[in-house]
């Protein structure tokens, strides 16, 4: 019996061993199959990961160029640049200094190589940081495209000094014509170091960039930059088969994205072993073309790693299996109750392990929740602490605004609604001027530009009105479009505008309030004798006649003296009225000249407030903003000094320069001339010195130029010109002021110097300007003034004696 049990036990052991071998074989086969499947799966995952990285780099480069294009687009809108551009146009396009461009380069010198200002004849006006005189042929071709398109343009890459560069172009328009082109040069080497070089694909892998023609633009091996990738490989290794790589490159040239496997050589491998690689590629759309972002990785890095891991797993599995079989033999020898106990112990161990994993997951979730709460609080703090009203709008399927998605605390405070009330309202509920049509028009504009600025009036809860300037931005949240509105209160700005308008209107009213006549009693100097009687003798009749004539002469002298005094009073009144008219024109010009520096000061104050709020206010920024503010204030102060010079009440005569006097007077009218598009030139063949009151002569020049401006504005829509010529003629200095305002009628030429004669509307002129100019020149300067028609315009000729000469004869 014992022998039978022993035999049975041996047979059971044999069966167990056979089962062990079969299980071992099955495990090995299964492991190999798993290895093949895992290898395929891992390779696919690695390829997809490389493709994702490639697309990420492509997107980063595209966004980088979009950002640079937006930056250069903003330059023509810069206030300083617009001022310099206008000065450039006024100077017959001869000014070659653009300090705002210099400032732009200094702020972005780490991102760009240089910035050039090019005129429409393709001449380089200025290059920052260094001057260059000529343009290469490739850049000229791109400039023709800019002239044709009249929009920002990204050029093609080009090689210079062993490196590739690309240029961004932005046209500067005047009256729909390209006057200047801003050209920014960007180094591809900087783009490579910033976006491409940091990316690693395994231990040997790298990222590279080629253009749509397959020419390498960015590569770790600098010797290959500028070469066509297939040609470079074939030239270096002509005996190798490059068909796999050629197939991939052909797909890349078509602008496709994808993955591929091919055989190649690592550039840094000294032994030049041919190995298997896999790569991922995607296009980056740059300007009119595209670049190919390629990532390559060693195939063996993954397969060798999997082989080693599989080998270790198989050994480990074999050991585990051996232990398991030994354990089974041991279990076979013990009682069934111990088997049950072992099973329970295993279950308990697994449960503890699961509990630990669950605790770790719970801890991670708590940390994530804390981070989310922290980010939410940070967002709400930034959103609600803004000094402007911020609204986030929902849009329905038709693109119309629905209820507010979010508003900040400033919006609630300013308009008087709480956030719960806002959640049931739309933007049209608080817009005084809004409508569905206007909103749809705004949305279409936003879809084109993404950012727009407009003015509106918001209605508060208590029916108050707040004029605002709104910056709108369209963005996507998920798959839905949203609009964010940043609203800034313009009440103070409106008040300033109205104050300027009222001031200008008040001074014009002063001009028009002039005495229209002087009252004088009628006197009868031939008084009848109260006691008439007959004179019998001829002698008595003669005496009577002599007495009556003497009385008449005395009365005539009194009337003559009164008339002279009256004429002097009228003349003084006319002088006063003329000066008031000139002062009114001058105040209008001062208002125009002050508007730009006042806006600049307002912007500086806003920048200081924003910098203080966001803790960006440091000594350097304070110093820069202060210097800019001082320059603007100096400019305003200079305007007031010039104004005081013009109306200086000094009575003593001085010897002064004609050229300097005319230039100082015209400086007051520069803003007036610019607003009406008038080109004024001063042609002083020689300077002249004359004796008299310089401010009176300035008033004459001022009156005549103002008349020319009014004539040009009324009669010409474009090509408005005024020319002032200064020259000598015998013992006189002559100033001729010519315009192309089509002149005046011949029958009116003799009347223009009469008092109160004017061709302007009643509220635009007093008719004293030319009359007083004639009085000043003839009486105070002993000169002559006359006017006559010329081709397409009028000429006013002023002749005064040179300094030290008594008259102009």
Automatic annotation (TrEMBL):
Keywords: ATP-binding, Coiled coil, Kinase, Membrane, Nucleotide-binding, Phosphoprotein, Transferase, Transmembrane, Transmembrane helix, Two-component regulatory system. InterPro entries: HATPase_C_sf (IPR036890), HATPase_dom (IPR003594), His_kinase_dom (IPR005467), HisK_dim/P_dom (IPR003661), HisK_dim/P_sf (IPR036097), PAS (IPR000014), PAS-like_dom_sf (IPR035965), Sig_transdc_His_kin-like_C (IPR004358). GO terms for molecular function: ATP binding; phosphorelay sensor kinase activity. Residues 344-375 form a coiled coil. Its EC number is 2.7.13.3. The chain crosses the membrane at residues 315-332. It catalyses: ATP + protein L-histidine = ADP + protein N-phospho-L-histidine. Residues 589-804 form the Histidine kinase domain. PANTHER family: PEROXIDE STRESS-ACTIVATED HISTIDINE KINASE MAK3, SENSOR HISTIDINE KINASE. This is histidine kinase. It comes from Anaeromicrobium sediminis. The lineage of its organism: Bacteria, Bacillati, Bacillota, Clostridia, Peptostreptococcales.
